[in-house]
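Dear Dr. H.,

I hope your travels went smoothly. While you were away I took the liberty of generating a structure for the chain from your last submission, since the lab meeting agenda had it listed for discussion. I wanted you to have the full record in hand beforehand rather than looking at slides cold. The sequence, exactly as received, is reproduced here:
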Amino acid sequence: MGGLPRVQDTSRSRDVFAIMVLGGVERLTEDLRRGYPFDEQSLIEMRLLRQRLSAFDAALAARETTLTE
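The corresponding predicted structure, in token form, is as follows:
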């Protein structure tokens, strides 16, 4: 046997950004909402992620205001 060939598929291709970035953030958000436990290192990393996303939000908002001026 030479492996498994691709099955006939009519679904559209998957967006890598949606899978890797948005999917990861969405899963983490859901796990936080469900009350799953996280260790101290994970909490540190989540706080760093929050800072980076806040900085991104501020930078995007600043750039968008230049579009309307």
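Two observations you may find useful: The chain has a mean pLDDT of 92. The longest helix spans residues 40-68.

With kind regards,
E. W.
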